[in-house]
Amino acid sequence: MFRNVAELVELAESKNVKISQIMIEQEMEVTGKTREEILGKMEINLDVMEKAVKRGLKGVKSHSGLTGGDAVLLQEYIRKGNYLSGEMLLDAVSKAVATNEVNAAMGTICATPTAGSAGVVPGTLFAVERKLNPTRDQKLEFLFTAGAFGFVLANNASISGAAGGCQAEVGSAAGMAAAAIVEMAGGTPSQSAEAMAITLKNMLGLVCDPVAGLVEVPCVKRNAMGAANAMVAADMALAGITSRIPCDEVIGAMFKIGQSMPSALRETAQGGLAATPTGRELEAKIYGLPLTKK
Amino acid sequence: MKYKSVFDIIGPVMIGPSSSHTAGAARIGRVARDLFGREPKWAAISFYGSFAKTYKGHGTDVAIVGGLLDFDTFDDRIKDSLKIAKQRKMKIKFNEEDAITDHPNTVRIAMGDEKDEMELAGISIGGGKIEIIELNGFVLRLSGHHPAILVVHNDRSGVIANVSNVLARHQINIGQMDVSRKEKGKLALMTIEVDQNLEQAVLDEISALPNIVQVSRIAD
């Protein structure tokens, strides 16, 4: 069983197989289930992700009215063709937003690794697939590779905003996505690790400060930028750029930063954006409370 | 390692908006119901830490009650669980606690009916993964990801051997086992995580052993 990224990469490279293969083999060993059973279970998750994106791109609105409809706006903008950054990048952003808008509307999603960060992995997958034309099995491999890196993060740092801030949620999701994009694009296991390191370094310190305690503001837009971060980091790693700080050490730093984050910035709606005048005003309005109560 | 499966990371499939505060909460509620053995008639649910501050926004309240009603994390009825509980005449009370707990996502559920009462504490550690940390005053560690048996018994020699003998006879493998007691010679609790779901006959056999007070199970 791999315990860190170095061991994961070493396993894959010594056996000359993809990271996804190592993850599937470990899952077989741990659960005693067959390869087919495990792939079948992942396929259910993939189906849920596809449906969530589709639903979000039609336009949804959350109960609070704080979020919804931005995925549609972005798709319309892409169609007009006047964008500056890039079509695939914006497509990933739009699809990440779509998933999280569905989540905020209490729709059905697949947590990757959490619900609040569920947009990044499927958003990037369904954007890069248009260029890379993966088979159904390769899409499943994308999820296993993302899962393998997330597994290391969850066990060595955290994937909970209440424990480690948003860096643990959207940060983790973005790192996982970057690693999986690299594998799907034909990069090596080492390059996947570099992509995750580069992504995480740019997510360190991100706090969890949801307005009114709702997984909406700023979560939906954090998913947007998580997806963008993952796409750019994947391209950087594929270009041969490496991280000066090894991936496992970045994860270690993330864990320590999470531990030293004050509770007000760990999913308690007590600090950060939640505590801004507008954040407080929205909170009072949603719960029908007088502003002075907090 | 706390996370053992890739599906702890890619999954669960769930109703939004939060894996820890919605899906994890539903799982804690469902494990509580399993341990109680039937639907409770009343439940007093106390939230701590981040749960206390944000439970309304995350739907933690409806999710826990959904779990008590036996709904899975992806069951659409979770959204209407408070209404459904009312229809089924389940009395629910929520408390927001100020006390600082070890984990920021902690909930304590006291529940019961005319026959019995139970109290447990659970934590939601991220990505929908949960641990039950306390049952009726006993400290325990239960992932909720494997079938498990919980045996309340008198703290006497030979009880553990008798229980494991029953399991051995039925060729049930023990994955993890934990024993705790409140006081020497008084009540004790055995927590046994096993590899397969258990037949009622096995539980009955354990219940019939000397010094056994109560046996309950959690299905996979």
UniProtKB/TrEMBL annotation, chain A:
<dbReference type="Pfam" id="PF03313">
    <property type="entry name" value="SDH_alpha"/>
</dbReference>
<keyword id="KW-0479">Metal-binding</keyword>
<keyword id="KW-0312">Gluconeogenesis</keyword>
<dbReference type="GO" id="GO:0003941">
    <property type="term" value="F:L-serine ammonia-lyase activity"/>
</dbReference>
<keyword id="KW-0408">Iron</keyword>
<dbReference type="GO" id="GO:0051539">
    <property type="term" value="F:4 iron, 4 sulfur cluster binding"/>
</dbReference>
<keyword id="KW-0004">4Fe-4S</keyword>
<dbReference type="GO" id="GO:0046872">
    <property type="term" value="F:metal ion binding"/>
</dbReference>
<dbReference type="InterPro" id="IPR051318">
    <property type="entry name" value="Fe-S_L-Ser"/>
</dbReference>
<keyword id="KW-0456">Lyase</keyword>
<dbReference type="InterPro" id="IPR005130">
    <property type="entry name" value="Ser_deHydtase-like_asu"/>
</dbReference>
<protein>
    <recommendedName>
        <fullName>L-serine dehydratase</fullName>
        <ecNumber>4.3.1.17</ecNumber>
    </recommendedName>
</protein>
<comment type="similarity">
    <text>Belongs to the iron-sulfur dependent L-serine dehydratase family.</text>
</comment>
<feature type="domain" description="Serine dehydratase-like alpha subunit">
    <location>
        <begin position="15"/>
        <end position="274"/>
    </location>
</feature>
<dbReference type="InterPro" id="IPR004642">
    <property type="entry name" value="Ser_deHydtase_asu"/>
</dbReference>
<comment type="pathway">
    <text>Carbohydrate biosynthesis; gluconeogenesis.</text>
</comment>
<dbReference type="GO" id="GO:0006094">
    <property type="term" value="P:gluconeogenesis"/>
</dbReference>
<keyword id="KW-0411">Iron-sulfur</keyword>
UniProtKB/TrEMBL annotation, chain B:
<dbReference type="InterPro" id="IPR005131">
    <property type="entry name" value="Ser_deHydtase_bsu"/>
</dbReference>
<dbReference type="InterPro" id="IPR029009">
    <property type="entry name" value="ASB_dom_sf"/>
</dbReference>
<dbReference type="InterPro" id="IPR051318">
    <property type="entry name" value="Fe-S_L-Ser"/>
</dbReference>
<keyword id="KW-0004">4Fe-4S</keyword>
<dbReference type="InterPro" id="IPR045865">
    <property type="entry name" value="ACT-like_dom_sf"/>
</dbReference>
<dbReference type="GO" id="GO:0003941">
    <property type="term" value="F:L-serine ammonia-lyase activity"/>
</dbReference>
<dbReference type="GO" id="GO:0046872">
    <property type="term" value="F:metal ion binding"/>
</dbReference>
<dbReference type="GO" id="GO:0051539">
    <property type="term" value="F:4 iron, 4 sulfur cluster binding"/>
</dbReference>
<keyword id="KW-0456">Lyase</keyword>
<dbReference type="InterPro" id="IPR002912">
    <property type="entry name" value="ACT_dom"/>
</dbReference>
<keyword id="KW-0408">Iron</keyword>
<dbReference type="Pfam" id="PF03315">
    <property type="entry name" value="SDH_beta"/>
</dbReference>
<dbReference type="InterPro" id="IPR004643">
    <property type="entry name" value="Fe-S_L-Ser_bsu"/>
</dbReference>
<dbReference type="Pfam" id="PF01842">
    <property type="entry name" value="ACT"/>
</dbReference>
<comment type="pathway">
    <text>Carbohydrate biosynthesis; gluconeogenesis.</text>
</comment>
<keyword id="KW-0479">Metal-binding</keyword>
<keyword id="KW-0411">Iron-sulfur</keyword>
<dbReference type="GO" id="GO:0006094">
    <property type="term" value="P:gluconeogenesis"/>
</dbReference>
<protein>
    <recommendedName>
        <fullName>L-serine deaminase</fullName>
    </recommendedName>
</protein>
<comment type="similarity">
    <text>Belongs to the iron-sulfur dependent L-serine dehydratase family.</text>
</comment>
<feature type="domain" description="ACT">
    <location>
        <begin position="148"/>
        <end position="220"/>
    </location>
</feature>
<keyword id="KW-0312">Gluconeogenesis</keyword>
